[in-house]
Design brief:
DHBP synthase, 11-stranded mixed sheet, 761 residues, 22% strand, single chain, alpha/beta, Alpha-Beta Plaits, 23 helices
Length: 761
């Protein structure tokens, strides 16, 4: 009898399970609870810090089935990074329950991103019999705000901005019922107890409208511009089919040319505007709902002023109940551009929006649910069927990647398209896109975002990594922080950002094509060939230096760049730059002759600017890289020709001479060759000389792993041209996909370099 009892007891087991990853705010606890009931498991489940802990008891076979179920098929929003299972002494629990959350300052932490509204909640808001009919803050554990409302961990209502809204009895019952899909949905609310909307005038007067949604729709149909407070900040919105409204918006926002993002009613509407592949459709419909850059169809549905001189347009689908409800009464296309003045950070507080956007909008549609941290819309595109993240923000951040870091590092990024990264417990956490730091408001938002994520993760850095450039605001911020300082060369950080994404550790050849970045020699780099790893590098090739006159002004006025290149090859410029006032040309020439306000650069970004100006595509720009972007958009891809080029090795470093390239372009201009042909020949030349030099370097250094990074590789034609040709030659080619190739990826590269320098690799 004793043996039988012993045997029966031995079939019972107890385990303590800890699941790390994005496991809070995704419906994991009720899922575990319900599976425990099915498998006859006893014990409890709880949030602990940012992880999920489960204390389980039961028969061995039941425990096995239970663990397989909850780990192999978790809730759809969950992202499991690590599972730890520990055997414990059996104690004979009688039931399974959900235990109150607890905190842990020392564990790995993960934060859920904001999620688009799920199909169940969409049905609720359009069901006239549902208590949440037309309620714009409807959500459940499968959707709604996360990162934008979290104030601290664990992710419980008391630790979010929703703590100020006391749930009514009905919502509280849902929130407390493990079988309900709104169980512990932290933003849970309804019209009786949750946030509400208001319509205001441009100067903040409450219009006391009884149906703010319908009134907003009517204003939009009348051609008005409305500042709409969304999930992560304000949008400036108008009817995307109303050319006059778009013109007014552009004038008021001081955004004459930069493309405007469009939100459309549904995927069918998007397909009438653009060519959409299966992969692009999947991303458009994903719960991240980014802006997707899509190739335009030749249609007259939208005015050309939405995205002037471009072949692609940025489209997104509705991602909050508010958005779905705006597409009523024959509204199908809305401009949804960031709520800011050109170059500034997105506004996300009601009072500041009224102050800073009141001169742009005619009306505001606001709500009283605060946004703890602003988050812009993410931007992606698909290249060769794969998602390329251009701007990592809503739905995509915070992003955590295991780099096995042994130090607490704060990496501060660059000055443009800024992000920051930090490392803790082996993981790197990358912030959302935070804009250009030269704007004072953007810089304040950047500092707040750093403090916010540091507080969420209970993080204190002992190493501060930042750009070599001493005048970047991110560098000045780093100078004032406590901790060991590590200065990182800009283009090395670009290269390593790609290496981290693809888990590369050995020596690579890095091709880093960029606009600006301070080099180790004090000059401005940007057309670089590097050999190195995460710790260090050598510069083995670059474009020949050219003296550019005008400082930062030259970037805004590419004609100055073109004139500087022409001056360097002693070519008479007056006949080429006919649209520029002769006195201005002569003034710049004199400055070049006397080296006044000039800087030397190897930047390929500046070479693209030069060619755009020479072809009269863009003499002055109103947004970053406008000349280069428009140069790509006029190409005739059927052209296979290129221009002559020269590569010389001088003291072990290969230099790419631009003289023959420019002379070939100038000759074609003189012969009246089509601008589209010249653009394509130029792109082909850059591709061919890159492939040529990579071949030379590979033979010299015995390296087959090639990394392509830097903002110029946002040029899809150039990227795919080089990628395809190098693949044919059996190189292993890597490029940025989930980590932006532009300066938004810099901070992750800085972090990995600092970690390697400090002895981890």
């Amino acid at each position: 009898m004793k043996r039988l009892i012993t045997k029966e007891k031995s079939s019972k087991r107890r385990y303590f399970v800890k699941i790390f990853g994005v496991v809070q705010g995704v419906g994991y606890r009720p899922y575990v609870y319900n599976q425990a009931i099915i498998f006859n498991i006893k014990g409890f489940v709880s949030n602990h810090g940012s992880s999920l802990v489960i204390d389980i008891e039961g028969e061995c076979k039941d425990i096995k089935g239970f663990l397989i179920k909850i780990i192999k098929t978790p809730p759809s929003l969950a992202v499991i990074k690590k599972v730890k299972v520990t055997s414990k002494d059996y104690i004979g629990s009688k039931e399974f329950h959900i235990k109150s959350s607890s905190s842990d300052k020392n564990e790995i932490k993960f934060i859920a991103a904001d999620v688009a509204t799920c199909p169940d909640c969409i049905r609720d808001i359009f069901d006239e019999t549902n208590p949440r009919y037309q309620y714009v803050f409807t959500n459940c554990t499968s959707c709604g705000p996360r990162y934008s409302i979290i104030k601290s961990l664990p992710y419980d209502r008391i630790n979010t901005i929703m703590e100020t809204f006391k749930m009514c009895p009905v919502c509280n019952k849902e929130y407390s019922d493990p079988t309900n899909r709104r169980f512990h949905a932290q933003p849970n609310c309804c019209p009786s107890c949750g946030p509400s909307l208001k319509v205001l005038t441009s100067y903040g007067e409450d219009l006391l409208k009884c149906n703010p949604i319908i009134d907003t729709i009517n204003y939009i149909k009348q051609g008005k511009i409305v500042g709409i407070k969304g999930l992560g900040g304000f949008h400036l919105s108008c009817d995307a089919k109303n050319e006059k409204s778009i013109e007014i918006l552009r004038n008021r926002k001081n955004r004459p040319h930069k493309p405007l993002a469009i939100m459309v009613k549904d995927i069918e509407t998007a397909k009438r505007l653009c060519f959409i592949s299966e992969e692009e459709e999947k991303v458009l419909l994903s719960n991240k709902r980014p802006i997707v850059l899509l190739r335009k169809k030749d249609s007259n549905i939208l005015p050309k002023s939405i995205a002037p001189n471009l072949n692609k347009i940025g489209i997104m689908l509705p991602y909050t109940p508010l958005h779905y409800l705006l597409f009523q009464n024959n509204i199908s296309h809305l401009v949804m551009t960031s709520g800011n003045m050109s170059g500034e950070s997105i506004q996300y507080k009601n009072d500041k929006a009224i102050k800073y956007l009141g001169n742009i909008v005619d009306y505001f549609l606001i709500h009283n649910r605060e946004i703890n941290i602003s988050v812009e819309d993410s931007v992606v595109k698909l290249v060769n069927g794969e998602e390329i993240v251009v701007r990592r923000a809503r739905g995509y951040t915070p992003f955590a990647i295991n780099i096995k870091a042994k130090h607490n590092i704060l990496a501060l990024g660059a000055e443009q398209k800024s992000t920051f990264s930090l490392s803790q417990n082996g993981y790197a956490y990358i912030s959302q896109y935070l804009g250009d730091l030269k704007d004072f408001d953007s810089y304040n938002t950047y500092k707040k975002a750093i403090r916010n994520l540091m507080d969420l993760l209970d993080f204190k850095p002992n190493i501060i990594a930042y750009d070599l450039h001493p005048y970047y605001l991110s560098s000045k911020y780093g100078d004032n922080q406590i901790g060991k300082k590590v200065l990182i060369q800009h283009h090395h950080a670009h290269m390593v950002s790609c290496m981290v994404e693809h888990n590369l550790s050995k020596q690579v050849i890095g091709v880093v094509f960029d606009g600006t970045g301070l080099g180790n020699d004090g000059k401005i780099w940007g057309g670089e060939f590097l050999v190195g790893n995460k710790k260090d590098f050598i510069r083995v090739g670059h474009f020949k230096y050219v003296a550019i006159q005008g400082g930062d002004k030259a970037i805004k006025q590419p004609w100055r760049i073109a004139l500087s290149y022409l001056h360097s090859i002693k070519y008479e410029s007056n006949n080429i730059l006919k649209a520029i006032d002769e006195d201005k040309i002569n003034m710049v020439k004199q400055a070049l002759d006397n080296n006044i306000n000039c800087y030397e650069t190897s930047s390929i970004g500046r070479l693209f600017d030069c060619v755009a100006a020479l072809l009269n595509i863009r003499h002055e720009i109103t947004y970053d890289a406008q000349g280069a972007i428009e140069l790509e958009n006029i190409m005739d891809v059927s052209i296979k020709e290129d221009y002559d080029y020269l590569i010389k090795e001088i003291n072990g470093v290969h230099q790419i001479y631009y003289e023959d390239i420019l002379l070939g372009i100038l000759k074609d201009i003189d012969k009246g060759v089509r601008t589209s042909n010249i653009s394509t020949k130029f792109h082909n030349t850059i591709g061919n000389l890159t492939i040529d030099l990579v071949n030379k370097l590979s033979k010299k250094y015995g390296i087959k792993d090639i990394v392509l990074s830097g903002g110029v590789f946002g040029n899809e034609y150039l990227l795919t041209y080089i990628l395809n040709e190098l693949n044919k030659k059996d190189f292993n080619v890597y490029y940025n996909k989930q980590i932006p190739t532009n300066d938004s990826g810099i901070s992750l590269g800085q972090l990995a370099i600092a970690n390697s320098i400090e002895g981890n690799e």
